[in-house]
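Hello forum,

I keep getting stuck at the same step: I have a sequence, I want structure tokens, and every attempt I make locally crashes halfway through. Rather than fight my setup again tonight, could one of you with a working pipeline run this one for me? It's a single chain of 237 residues.
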Amino acid sequence: MTLAVVLVIGFCLGVRHATDSDHVVAVTTIVSRERSVGAAAWVGVLWGLGHTVTLLLFGGGIVLFGWEISPRLGLSMEMLVAVMLIALGVGNISGVLPRLNERVHRQHAPHPHDESSFEREPAPYAHLGRLRPFAVGVVHGLAGSAAIALLVLGTIKSVSLALVYLALFGAGTVAGMLLLTLAMSLPISMLARRLARVEQLTARLTGALSIAFGLFLAYRIGVSDGLFLGVPHWKPR
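Reply #2:
Ran it on my machine without issues. Output:
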């Protein structure tokens, strides 16, 4: 397999990987509270970067050092995604994430009583707001890196080509998630300008979807796949 083919396939599959159902649900839950298309696009980029960092570190370890993933460990990593989806959904419905976003937005705005002072909210809130999509991407990358790396090992014999493939796969994921968040945020942003309650309603709906999908994944992983009951059987996907 030539380098050019590896680059094209890796990037294209990375773009497609961004549209996996659990990725879409997680990012939609976060994007539903963003007020601008630019902020939503930044969410997609940060998610993709977090996913890529984990993919390169963990997937690279599998390719380079032959790390083996036990069924219980593989299922545990996937369970982290389910827990995270439930937590994101609860945060949207309860209003925790909206309040965090409010503090992040206000931190970058001038103080109303002194336009020259640029007084801001405490810095930790802004850092949390920026790190949330990155951390979500890291969790998803951890759950999916084993499957991606094992797929690479099964088709590419050269270690250097395998690492290039992983890097391009990660770049494709960033691009795919950027496009996805832009597509999701445009109609929401346009409606929010006309109807004040659209943002709140969208956040509640995406929060409920995130909780439902997280519970579905938790049941499948914990019960059907045997993480908590029976013998764990894990097939990377």
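Residues 11-109+120-224 form one domain. If your local run keeps crashing, start a new thread with the error log.
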